[in-house]
Amino acid sequence: MAPSTLPAMKTNPKFVFFSDFDGTITTRDSNDFLTDNLGYGEKLRKQSNQEVLHERESFRDSFQGMMDSVKTPYDKCIQTLVENIKLDPGFKEFYDWARQNNIPVVILSSGMEPIIRALLLHLLGPVAEEIQIVSNQVAPRDGKSINEEGGWQIIFHDESHFGHDKSLEIAPYQQLPDSERPVMFYAGDGVSDLSAAKETDLLFAKKHHDLVTYCVKQDVPFTEFEDWSSILATVKRIAAGETDVKTVAAEGHEAFKKETLFSNASTAFSNSLSLPPILLFTSSPSAPASASSYKPRSVSSSVRAASRSSSAYTVFFSVSSAAISNSSRAVAYWSWSFSMMASAEDLSA
Ligand SMILES: [Mg+2]
């Protein structure tokens, strides 16, 4: 059989890691930074994000408006970003390990290639030249050069709603015969990552970001990550054959559901302490039919953090016992608590 012409298959890897760039490999989004500091500002950007969220504007049009608001010469934009954008703390170690272990990293981005390349070279050094980047581009406006005031414009990758449909690059890898097809990973943080995430074998979704919400809504399996050190640990275990992508995805989804249910129980409890018992009982959410129908309530980071540890159960019940002096309220509360815990178990079964 003819060797594959797909860029990441040159070295016949067993694994390929696709990743979003902004907010995933970097700690903050470079396009947001440009818009907030050199374009029309944070307030208008957030308004535009809301328009997209409520489907009154396409992601593509919203993003075009943000980039059009930046009149600064392109070389100055790059310089500003190089001075301000930082890598995720674990990415360099991940990338070095992936290189040594024949795991190509392919960046699929809604940003612009020259900016991504410049940031990677600055943050990773010359090895960054090897990284394949699939993204939007930049071009001069009529009669201008990109490095003069108002001289550049974004050129979208394709005709999709997002300007770059990230699944297009991955689809040909899916078509490879089983003997050649690598195991594919994806890491991302936003809604434009969803189409790509559906095409790969294991999705790492950044904790507390939009992608998690969309995955829950659409029942796309995922595992959460906070930084690339946890991605590295998981990929190492998979590469060593200690676990596999299906197991990690199933464990990740289960951990997320339990955490969310417990966080909501904690919040609902603290919110309802001042309510009479009957309200306390009836205000409890019923067990959701599926993870996709479950709507997480916003909870404080300390509650989220506490709910991650099993000892939090002990603390939670001790505090609640002390807080409830009235016995009828206690009975109502305890029934409700156990129904919450039972639903967590049902969902993970
Ligand atoms: Mg992103």
How would you explain this protein's 3D organization?
Pfam families: HAD (PF12710). GO terms for molecular function: phosphatase activity. Keywords: Hydrolase. InterPro entries: HAD-like_hydrolase_phosphatase, HAD-like_sf, HAD_hydro_PyrdxlP_Pase-like, HAD_sf. The chain has 349 residues and is an alpha/beta fold. The chain folds into two domains: 7-243, Rossmann fold, CATH 3.40.50; 253-348, no CATH class. The chain has 15 helices and seven strands. The chain has helices at 30-38, 42-53, 59-68, 74-84, 91-100, 113-124, 167-174, 194-199, 210-218, 228-239, 245-272, 277-282, 301-308, 311-323, 327-348, and strands at 15-19, 105-112, 132-140, 152-155, 183-188, 202-206, 223-225. Strands 4-3-2-1-5-6-7 form a seven-stranded mixed β-sheet, sandwiched between helices. Helix 4 (74-84) runs parallel beside helix 6, helix 11 (245-272) packs across helix 13 and helix 11 runs antiparallel to helix 15. The longest helix has 28 residues, at 245-272. Mean pLDDT is 83; it is low at 274-299 and 344-349. Magnesium ion binds at residues 20, 22-24, 189-190.
Give the secondary structure arrangement, pairings included.
Blueprint: E1 15-19, H1 30-38, H2 42-53, H3 59-68, H4 74-84, H5 91-100, E2 105-112, H6 113-124, E3 132-140, E4 152-155, H7 167-174, E5 183-188, H8 194-199, E6 202-206, H9 210-218, E7 223-225, H10 228-239, H11 245-272, H12 277-282, H13 301-308, H14 311-323, H15 327-348
Parallel strand pairs: 1-2, 1-5, 2-3, 5-6, 6-7
Antiparallel strand pairs: 3-4
The structure holds magnesium ion.
